From TrEMBL:
Superkingdom of the source species: Bacteria
Record organism: Niabella ginsengisoli
InterPro entries listed in its UniProt record: cNMP-bd_dom, cNMP-bd_dom_sf, RmlC-like_jellyroll
Domain Cyclic nucleotide-binding: 29-115
Stated name of the protein: Crp/Fnr family transcriptional regulator
Amino acid sequence: MKQIRQYFEKTVNLTDKDWQFFSSKLIRQEFPKNHLLLKTGQTENYLSFIETGMIRFYIPKDENDLTFAFAFDNNFVSGYDSFLTKTQSTYNIETLTKSILWRLTYNDLQDIYNQTEIGNIIGRQASEELFLKKSKREISLLKDTAEQRYRNLFIEQPHLLQHIPLKYIASYIGVTPQALSRIRNRIY
């Protein structure tokens, strides 16, 4: 929980009163590797902060799932579109490693917005982070080559890539596992 306060205090000054109220709403949950946090057709009920873990977002397909995002330690994770609209998700969210999440329900988040001085700032920061990641991904798909998307992922999270199966990385950068092998051979 300390990580969450440190995350917010990079940009806002949390009073002890606000932090106490905010932290009282957090639910700590541990999940095993390969656990589905959200399944297609379910409604997202949580905005979560990753204390530890790696998480994958994907669209399930008969042959090869389409991985479109990863989330790592000290970041927010949510099927945010489903969370905000209370509609069914069109994708799955799965833990790739044992993960510890601190979670807020939609109603608890609304209470934080309404009853703390900094609640709206916290909510804005979380939603801005999720939006910026989504925008960065979309722009990368439009302008970068698959090799550049691989390099960017490697630069951003080099120690974590060792733990993500290559088939997920290939799907994420938009190539087959064989094409990813060729990219990796060119780089190394």
